[in-house]
Amino acid sequence: MAEYAKELSTGPVPEGGAGHGRMGRITAASLFGTAIEFYDFYIYGMAAALVFNHVFFPDLSTTSALLASFSTFGVAFVARPFGSMLFGHFGDRFGRKSVLVVSLLMMGLSTAFVGLLPGYSQWGIAAPVVLVLLRFVQGVGLGGEFGGAALLAVEHAPRGHRGKYGSAAQLGAPLGLLVATAVFWVMSCALPGGAFIAWGWRVPFLLSFAFTAVGLVVRLKVAETPVFRAMSQAQVLSRVPVKEVLRRNPRELLLGAGAMVVVFCTFYTGSAFCLSYATGALKIARGDMLAISLIGCLTFAAGIWLSATGSDRIGRKRMMLIGAAVSVPCALAVFPLMDTRQIVLIALALGALNFCTGLTYGPIGAYLPELFGARVRYTGASLAYNLGGVLGAAAAPLIATHLQASFGSFSVGLYMGAAGVVSLACLCFLPETGRRGLGHQAQDPARPVPARESAGAAV
User: Fold this and answer.
1) CA distance 76 to 53
2) 421, 328 Cβ separation under 8 angstroms
3) Closest CA to 32 of 141, 175, 148
4) According to the model, what pLDDT value does residue 4 have?
């Protein structure tokens, strides 16, 4: 075993190199699977902003009902780190592919059942309780999605192109949001307000049955990654990945999570809260705001693609620093532009905010996996990503709602700008990873690595 491990550490790293046709299938599996899961996640946020206060919290005042609705939205972010540890454990021990299939099923079914859930008028207090439980299951499922989807693409990709192929997992987010927004927009325009609140909002949730089936077919056809296969053959898999991450990579874990704060804060404040604020306080038509959200999906995707491909040339860290830096002034300009109530200016504000968010988000699909060694890559990347979600988004719509009600809309822009400063500070203390091999094991130089772990790190 020691001789084989030594051969792996000195020979060619078993990563990437898949042909163009095979990489196309792998990229599609990462992209469409992630898009379906984010579709499931985003329709909940839209429903929380537009209808859940009417369906599940009808006896509360307008503001209280909105706060209660956004509280159910935040439950999933609390659940996501648990999903990271659960799916990360099995993904690092038994393979990336099988775990991704389970996470997709969990996410899709919990979402579809929301569409079948009776409202408060039929079930009373049981209705919002079950809603919260389903949202928690959603969060657990999505907690295992990012790491696996990113690794599926990155561990197959040829070196020098990991940013480009890793962006498939990132582009799933705007694609899922685009489809979610389009479905809500169609239902909103096709139905009168009463019908939309009575039953029309359920259609996007029920479509998850069909989307999940498609995602399963795509993912079941993809092979396990060469990096994991090599580790499995060498028998150097981590026994308890989360313990190893916490012991060996606490710095990368915490700083990686901090780097994600601006992405989650600006994106979910810009989508969930701004949708509610514009249709409620500013009295902008729901259809107009959903159309503006469609534009935001496109600018978000453009930012992701530009920064992900650029990170292969100038570095992951540099691209993310640029994105976090430009997000600060952009965040400060959003609400002065929105408060004009001019549709064009609102579209400009939210489109620019989404573009800046995409600039920071694009390299993450390659950057977070590159921070961690192969033995714990699924757990480390997933946990950093989803801890960033807890810090940046779990309470973002709630905080934004409270700030706007107490201090005015500009305070929400200050809140998003502060998130950008936090991420900038964290990125300054993280390394550049673009030239690392996927077998790199970040470590404290003063803490020697046991021979068995060193062998695993070389894979």
Assistant:
1) 18
2) yes
3) 175
4) 28
Sequence-separated (6 or more) residues with CB below 8 Å from residue 197: 51, 54, 55
Q: Is residue 286 within 8 Å of 344, Cβ to Cβ?
A: no
In contact, 184 and 328? CB cutoff 8 Å: no
Residue 10 has pLDDT above 80, yes or no: no
Write out pLDDT tens, residues 134-155: 999 988 988 888 888 889 889 9
3-class secondary structure for 251-276? HHHHHHHHHHHHHHHHHHHHHHHHHH
The mean per-residue pLDDT over the stretch 175-203 comes to 89
Please check whether residue 347 is in contact with residue 453, taking contact to mean a CB–CB distance below 8 angstroms.
no
| DSSP at 200 | I
pTM: 0.84
Give the residue with greater pLDDT, 287 vs 257.
Answer: 257
Cβ atoms of 139 and 78 closer than 8 Å: yes
- Of 240, 188, 212, nearest to 51 by C-alpha is 188
Please check whether residue 93 is in contact with residue 237, taking contact to mean a CB–CB distance below 8 angstroms.
yes
The tens digit of pLDDT for each residue in 60-112 reads: 877 787 778 877 777 888 899 999 999 999 999 998 888 888 988 998 899 99
Report, in this order, helix, strand and coil percent for the chain, each rounded to 5: 80, 0, 20
Do the beta carbons of residue 223 and residue 33 sit within 8 Å? no
Who contacts 315 (Cβ-Cβ below 8 Å, separation ≥6)?
432, 434
Tokens of 345: 């200016």
The whole-number pLDDT of residue 439 equals 56
The terminus-to-terminus CA distance of the chain in angstroms comes to 14
Q: Phi and psi at residue 219, in whole multiples of 5°?
A: -75, -30
